[in-house]
Amino acid sequence: MRQIINNKQFDEERSLYNLKNANVVDCIFAGEADGESVLKEARDVDLKGCSFSLRYPLWHVRKFSMEDVTMDELSRAAIWYSSDAVIKNSVLGGIKAVRECSNISITGCKINSPEFGWKSQGISLKDTKVMAEYLFMDSRDVVLDNVEMKGKYSFQYMENLEISNSVLDTKDAFWHSKNVTVYNSIIKGEYLGWFSEGLRLVDCKIIGTQPLCYCKNLKLENCTMEDTDLAFEYSEVDADIHSHILSVKNPKSGIIIAGSIGEEIWEEPVMECSCQVITRDCCKSGCPMKMRRAV
């Protein structure tokens, strides 16, 4: 028989340790005792309408759900080493909220958590807003859909990441990442995607200085760029850009097709650069496509 815990307050160390087969409803996890790990090692628990203001509440938890739950900034390192979870319409507000977790679905949430999602696998975010200085570092098999995020050093050392219909306001995102695909999204930042491998951007808008350098197997399909200078340095690139690029510098190989390019910089390369750079006509009269430089 499933246990129901309703409208209670807990603040002691491991208050509900190893809780099993339970619904926890409208409970408060806070108080003078300031106890840690209140639901550690829980199994098959559903949390609804609860609020947390204690450290490490959900460590080593298996098969759980959270709905209309609030974790404030005192809920440090809230969900670690846990798996098989569904989190809906909740607020995750403490630093390092998710780490070394697997198979967690997050929908309709607000996340304000530096170092969110590190070393995790099988995480999905949908219809969610995120603020995180380091987001999903060294994680894999992650899916984002309709996510609005603001951060700095996002998606570093990731593998198998898919993003769609999102707005990413970040800095040097995707560094050293592998097998990342972004669809129909806006990506704003500096030094985007350096040292990435297998980065694919489809129907995206890229904003910011010095993007996409030192990349391997880089692909851009039907994209636009804004305020992008010194792009593609030493990258292996296949790019179809339907806009102006401020400048392109020493692309290593492949082909770049752009609406127009303000400046092509070919100077003092430290490796052989043989990329073709081609511009289409952007005028109304419709001149043919022209190759401006091939090295």
Write a brief caption for the model.
This protein has 295 residues and is mostly beta strands. It is 0% helix and 49% strand.
Structural class from helices and strands?
mainly beta
> Secondary-structure element sequence?
EEEEEEEEEEEEEEEEEEEEEEEEEEEEEE
Number of H- or I-type helical stretches: 0
Coarse morphology: elongated
Q: In terms of per-residue confidence, which ranges show pLDDT below 50 for 5 or more consecutive residues?
A: 282-295
The share of residues in extended strands comes to over 45%
Share of helix, binned: under 10%
Mean pLDDT: 95
Radius of gyration: 23 Å
> In order across it, which strands form the biggest sheet?
17-18-20-22-24-23-21-19
Would you count the extended β strands for me?
Answer: 30
Distance between the termini: 74 Å
Structure characterization notes:
0% of the residues lie in helices and 49% in strands. It has 295 residues and is an all-beta fold. The strands form 3 sheets. It has an 8-stranded parallel barrel. The model is unreliable at 282-295 (pLDDT under 50).
What's the SSE blueprint?
Blueprint: E1 3-6, E2 9-10, E3 20-25, E4 28-29, E5 43-48, E6 51-52, E7 58-59, E8 62-67, E9 70-71, E10 79-80, E11 83-88, E12 91-92, E13 98-99, E14 102-107, E15 110-112, E16 121-132, E17 140-151, E18 159-164, E19 167-169, E20 178-183, E21 186-188, E22 197-202, E23 205-207, E24 218-226, E25 236-241, E26 244-249, E27 253-258, E28 260-265, E29 276-279, E30 290-294
Parallel strand pairs: 1-3, 2-4, 3-5, 4-6, 5-8, 6-9, 7-10, 8-11, 9-12, 10-13, 11-14, 12-15, 14-16, 15-16, 16-17, 17-18, 17-19, 18-20, 19-21, 20-22, 21-23, 22-24, 23-24, 24-25, 25-27, 26-28, 27-29
Antiparallel strand pairs: 29-30
